[in-house]
Structures
1.
Amino acid sequence: MHEERLADRAYAGIVELINTDDLQIGDRLPSETRLAEMFGMSRTVVREALVRLASDGFTEARRGAGSFVKRRPSERLGSHLPMQNLAATMGSYEVRLVLEAEAARLAAQRRSAEQMLVIERAMDSLRTALQASGPAHVEDMELHRAIFEATANPIFVSSFDHMHDEIDRILRAGVDISRSRPPAAINAMIEEHELVVDAIRAQDGDAAALAMRWHLWQGRKRLMP
Amino acid sequence: MHEERLADRAYAGIVELINTDDLQIGDRLPSETRLAEMFGMSRTVVREALVRLASDGFTEARRGAGSFVKRRPSERLGSHLPMQNLAATMGSYEVRLVLEAEAARLAAQRRSAEQMLVIERAMDSLRTALQASGPAHVEDMELHRAIFEATANPIFVSSFDHMHDEIDRILRAGVDISRSRPPAAINAMIEEHELVVDAIRAQDGDAAALAMRWHLWQGRKRLMP
DNA sequence: TCTCCGAAAGTTGTATAACAGATATGCGTT
DNA sequence: AACGCATATCTGTTATACAACTTTCGGAGA
């Protein structure tokens, strides 16, 4: 089961506090001790939540003074936005189509020899994993991430990580994606990936973008025909 | 000055540990007690660092088992990767160009009447802020975010938030972006935004995407002519 | 010998108490 | 009213203890 830690409740509680009490940027929120007794938990746990809030850029702790609102967490995508799984999956393909196609193009244009090697290795792993009819989710992700890294743009890479986390979170709540596939689909998946890798090897940006679009489109059709 | 907390040293120490000891994804790192005596600090502080590492997606704590490497921090954009600010800014424009153009297209195609109203209001705020020659960074961000929200795709919205965080983090380390602007640039910025909003109002996806590309391109030229 | 079960050891999660170091508050003096 | 200082408040850090959970390992039983 999906155990919930106390710090999660504290985190949500503080976010709610900021919103309902309408704390503005710069406002001080209650002391750790006060929050602890408000939520009925120890100061240790409240501190853990505050550390994460600060890490997320929402609050800032000033020693001896208190914790202050740095950015309001208003309507960010969170657990309170329950989407249908199907719509969410569709939505994820929209974002992937945009980001991954352009990443493939940049990767083709800029890849170094070392990065090409990493991509080839990831492709090999994916091929063997698919041919073994086992779960290939990790290998697939590694290949796509290698392509993002070949863009030589750290923001692209971090965007991939973020997108991947979000999609994972949605899919994990829904149907298992690593179900059994017919052999025809396996060969198709290998071929689609190879088209992308070939284009990157040939440093043909347009072809890489096109192949990636094709691959994602086929994947979407495979999931919901 | 910039007081250093012990947890910062612990955070850096663990990152270094992962890199130098070459811990791979899935590997377990030393227990909190062990790390505490390694770094010569209390377990509480080590826990604080681990919470932040988990929040950043580098590690994952499994109760009763230990903390495990989830993604290696080496290749991620971070404090230990001092990029030239110029290159980073260029990189951010690449990502924005891709994401925002497509977001504008989807927003134009799908916007509801309510969402259009939010966009109009954001546009008004931005216009007055720019005409007052004050800092308009917040208003600009609000408008762009409203456009992402009009896509009706939560993953697009969360990608925007993430991208914005990353870019902010880079720009904050560099030159202040809200410097004084010549009046001609102010009018140009207003006009560019209005072109985007007009296209969304007219529900013309291609025009919206094009206008957004144009706006971002002009912005890039304004920053580094 | 092999398998299975359960105790023990190890690890994270939480609570409590205490103190150090920094900051804000408010009172009293001038 | 303005200034200075004592005092209260708050975060940062340490230490200890226990609960909840996971892994390990050795022994009992087949």
2.
Amino acid sequence: MRKISIQDIAEELKLSKATVSLVLNGRGDEKRIRKETQEKIKNYAKLHNYRPNQFARGLSRGKSEMVGLIIPNISDNFYARIASRIEQKARLSGYTVVYSSSGENPDREKELIQTMLDRQIDGLIIASTQKNQEEIKRLKKMNFPFVLIDRHYPEIETNFVIVDNAGGVVSAVDQLVKQGRTRIGYVSLQSDLEAIHQRTEGYLQAMKKHGLPVESSFVQEVSPESYEVEMNQAIAHLVEAEPKVDGIVFATHYLTAAGLRSLKKRGLSVPADVAVVSYDQMNAFDLIEPPMTCVIQPVDEIGDRAVNILLDTMRKNETTKQLVLKTDFVVRKSCGG
Amino acid sequence: MRKISIQDIAEELKLSKATVSLVLNGRGDEKRIRKETQEKIKNYAKLHNYRPNQFARGLSRGKSEMVGLIIPNISDNFYARIASRIEQKARLSGYTVVYSSSGENPDREKELIQTMLDRQIDGLIIASTQKNQEEIKRLKKMNFPFVLIDRHYPEIETNFVIVDNAGGVVSAVDQLVKQGRTRIGYVSLQSDLEAIHQRTEGYLQAMKKHGLPVESSFVQEVSPESYEVEMNQAIAHLVEAEPKVDGIVFATHYLTAAGLRSLKKRGLSVPADVAVVSYDQMNAFDLIEPPMTCVIQPVDEIGDRAVNILLDTMRKNETTKQLVLKTDFVVRKSCGG
DNA sequence: ACTAATTGCTAAATCGGTTTAGCAATGGAG
DNA sequence: CTCCATTGCTAAACCGATTTAGCAATTAGT
């Protein structure tokens, strides 16, 4: 049961490689190969479990039927779910997805893009660190098909599928206001990510819209590296400086987690003392006490749209498509509702 | 800035493809190519950003420098973390990891294995559905390098890295006993997975060891498809039948989650009414009230060991390696401690 | 009966590398 | 001056497919 090549089949059946290849690629009729011959080839191939060597095929066709996916971190549930969806969706169109995590490291991201290009992938989906403009520009200049997801470079014209971050936070603030909260704080991340800035924008917009004051202590930022520790500081500012907040919006799910721990340590009760809404969710956010109110990102839609756009771009050279998806919202007890 | 091939370099520098290839693969000295010539080639290659075509290289070398990873579900945090670790570790040895989710579907798993073999991967790491003996046997017969992780086929002699499931549950029961609980229930999954059976074994062993009775209502099984619903039934049996349980061990993290919801619905308090220990963890298990006591699986070690074994197997044809890793344990409030 | 069209298939180039056997030129030893 | 070693490099086969131009044999058309 050794590996069998097209050559082997051709010799065995006393035909040429060309004929065999044509038939096995379904071009037998088009090339007017006799039905009988076609059957013979197909049967032999099936019987001996013929499998085309993808290297040879790729080399000669210049296509790999693979698309690359680069995300910051596969063990972040948000990206894992996107990855999972993209894989499923891409498979339906016959593509294999190759994915890798950049660990939020631009150099590594660059390296990964290069590795994937070396492997002759046909297209790329990237949730970029957003510190990799040069590489993205290069892809664009190469006219290589790609789609940015979750994060994009506003200054580069590319395909992208992102989420309406500002809108998501607005709905979070709206909900707190609806519950009668007026001194609403916001905890965010020190970050260059557009998405993070937009969330802050959303907070400020929403507060303005409701005519609520934004005290200087209301907006807190912690560093991505040591947010666990800094969160205690941040919470201290929010709940001690006068006026104390009666509601907090956290900019990411893990900030919410850290924030809750911090609130708990101080003996503050949610939502009685402070109502909480989280941007983005975590697996157990409906399990915790109180269950967490969340802005929900349309994970499946991000994946589906990204794949669709990529396939379009790969096939015809479509115009660039830029999508901003609306967030969803789940009200649970943490917001005081 | 077009794509440049070895051919191009050779022509430009009036050398042969062979020389260029040799030099760029670091075999210049060995083949006694003049330093000067080597420099010329390397410089030209760097300057024009030469990148070898991996298809061509793979075709001619018969190696792809890729390893495949097949897991049930990338959006399950347990597997995501393993995948992440494996990717990092494999990269250090110059391998790219291609991964795919089987969705617990044996047919799909088989398909994935085939696809990966077609793509000429050099080795494979599989967390199998355990309903795919034929395929695994086939790999073995082909003498293809692979390692099973998390789940293995006891009747097939293969490399594997699994966890001491029974031992993990024993430590869970031990902890509950230490907290003075004596009527300990166990909620598991209807499943053919060895890992799941072993956990049940562990429960029974531990109860026996402590001389505790296992009432018929103490062991509950729910189906993987509708465990959320059936959990209510299961919990009802555990807490209503006499004698009522005063402690429960859940066989997986998501069973724990569902169980907690169910207990909450009935107004039962953890750990006052029922102490709880979870086999395996979830992201927010330290956030919930009460924080969850967990059996911790050595995720990183699974990944590291699997890669090591795979690399060994790929290089020299080592003897089969079979590893059973010990679990860890985190005590938190849910067990009454 | 002669040309034209159709049928059925193949030869050979190509993709971009790797690798082995060996050639030509130079230097040194005897 | 001849012979052998060494240096520096190359020709050509090979990996396993795809694809195009076109040949030979048969059938159809007039």
3.
Amino acid sequence: MPSPITDLHAYLEAHDLFHKTIELKRGDYLHHAGETNTNIYYVAKGTLRTYVFVNDEEQVIRFGYQGDYVAAMDSFINGKPTILYSQALRKCTVRMIRKTEYMAQLAADPELARLWQKITSWMITGQLEREIDLLTNDPAERYRRVFERSPQLFQEIPAKYIANYLRMTPETLSRIRSAIPPDPST
Amino acid sequence: MPSPITDLHAYLEAHDLFHKTIELKRGDYLHHAGETNTNIYYVAKGTLRTYVFVNDEEQVIRFGYQGDYVAAMDSFINGKPTILYSQALRKCTVRMIRKTEYMAQLAADPELARLWQKITSWMITGQLEREIDLLTNDPAERYRRVFERSPQLFQEIPAKYIANYLRMTPETLSRIRSAIPPDPST
DNA sequence: CCGTTTTCTTGAGCCAAATCAATTTTCACG
DNA sequence: CGTGAAAATTGATTTGGCTCAAGAAAACGG
């Protein structure tokens, strides 16, 4: 199942829905918990992590790479303050879409409505994968599952965030990686 | 945020989209892995669990109570074989909706389209909650979080399935429950 | 209502991953 | 480049939840 994100992006470009461009430096936030931020952001360049505090610990929910869309999705959906943080892991260029403009277009154009239906369905199946990852008991198996699905993840992003995303400590991830014979083809 | 499920249900009743009624006895399956099942089921009576095999272990993904909708959502979304099992935990009466009929109605009626948009958004925020639950390290804390959100869960469903849903053994759940002083108000 | 099966509870021991700690390596930035 | 800070690695130790086991309680179905 190919990601419908590229179709969405083509549509948004064609209909000129990007509102402004934002430059972030390492450590900057796109949004933070407590803030009501209903925008959608397109990552033109760079990488971000989206995390949440659970019991005083940061927990990575997802990463945003070049070409991805990032949002405080809870805030976008219900218009209330988000619980999420999205932080630049390096210099980023992101382009913003305002919810009001997006929703107006969504109501006006059935083509976008169909596209959006695909996107949300795709997000739901993606979350099912994520849930299965998190339900996997063995840390090495969690690593393997995610690595097979998104090997590129491990190029750009510091291991400590990946470890956190995989629900393990950086020490455990390091030991797992050293235990697995390196693939000569990569 | 109130669940938009009741609105959906009212709509489906009003437009007579239920195709047939199915009776299940304890242990029966609504669908199983490998099968392509694109139907949506309304739980008129009873309770079910939806689970998936991960590394030869059953892992509960969600429960379906009276008034809920249950589906092999991966199959519904992409039309391919599901990886999910939905099994009756007791005698159930479920009513079926065929995807083809549902999709036809979705394409024909903007009211249903709007309703469906709400439903999918609501599912996405629900999944975010679930993800946070699963990322919580302390088992007692996972229990507390889910219990506060859905206390009714612990009435109908055998503890061993709840434990599995909470990513812990039945022994651990039992010990957590005996450690927490019972609430006299309930 | 009774008998059988399933589930729950409790205890003991173990083990894998967390924690703690120290060094090495890498990387960002001047 | 070179320097300082951040990240990764490696080892030692601890510990919390799992496994195994046995008995008690509860629930199902006839």
